[in-house]
Amino acid sequence: MNRVAIVTGSARGIGAATVDALVNESYRVVAVDRCRDIPEVPYALATPGELDAVVAHHGDAVLGLVGDVRSATDMQLAVETAVRHFGRLDAVVACAGVVAGGGPLWEVSDAAWDAVWSVNVLGTRRLIEAAAPTLIANGVAANGRILAVASAAGTMGLRHLAAYSAAKHAVVGLIRAVAMDLAEYGVTANVVSPGSTRTAILEASAAVYGLENGEAFAAQQPIGRLIEPVEIAQAITWLCSPASSAITGADFAVDGGMTV
Fold first, then answer.
1. Cα 197 to Cα 225: distance, rounded to the nearest angstrom
2. Which of 20, 79, 101, 186 has the highest count of CB atoms within 10 angstroms of its CB?
């Protein structure tokens, strides 16, 4: 029986790579993305065309759904869609995230702060609260999985990115608490924390520091290069597998040694 997952932020970057990796492990996936910009976020978000391209690459194995992770209604629809279209739900992966508000904390607007927190933290909450009842109902033997993408910023403090750092710290804490809430039901919850990864968020972060592009961040990592989205996706996929059944509440650093 094919397992089924929901992946948010799936139109590009780590989300799109996660869809690919899960399908390669015989998952069926509901790929969710907002597919429109947020005024307070200073760069373009993914487009409907990018989501369509992810879906088209996998045919019937992936169903695209335009939805905002901040909306309880949209996340409930994602769960209902997975169950109705693919017959079940086994895993959810919260990849959706944004960065905004470059500058010291006292210069960050409430609107920028709220945008970062609403997508990164509230969006993770909305996905979990929509999916948890279904994952619990599957039973202990079903190996239910919840994954969230945080960041090395969830361990470190990043200059001029206070809202993002605080939000990613919150994601780690949220998942640790959820892991305890779900442990008796056989559902695990874990975090993957990327280092500098070749994504749109990295390019936006480069702009905060006046860098020409994200390649400059390779020097932060002992491995001496940027991480590719597929490398994060492979860690997520393993954590969705039965092999990870004894792991919950963990924060996996996939950061090239950045936080060492």
1. 9
2. 101
Is the separation of the CB atoms in 45 and 34 below 8 Å?
yes
pLDDT band at 244 (very low <50, low <70, confident <90, very high): very high
DSSP state of 256: T
Give yes or no for a contact between 198 and 216, defined as CB atoms under 8 angstroms apart: no
Measured CA to CA, the distance from residue 104 to residue 43 in angstroms comes to 19
Q: In the sheet where 251-254 sits, what is the strand order?
A: 62-66, 28-33, 4-8, 91-94, 145-149, 188-194, 251-254
Name the token pair of 66: 């335009």
Q: Of the candidates 44, 64, 47, which has an alpha carbon nearest to the alpha carbon of residue 56? A: 64
pTM of the predicted structure, to 2 decimals: 0.96
**Please, what is the average pLDDT of the chain?**
95
Which residues are catalytic, by number?
164
The beta-strand segments (E) located in the chain are: 4-8, 28-33, 62-66, 91-94, 145-149, 188-194, 251-254
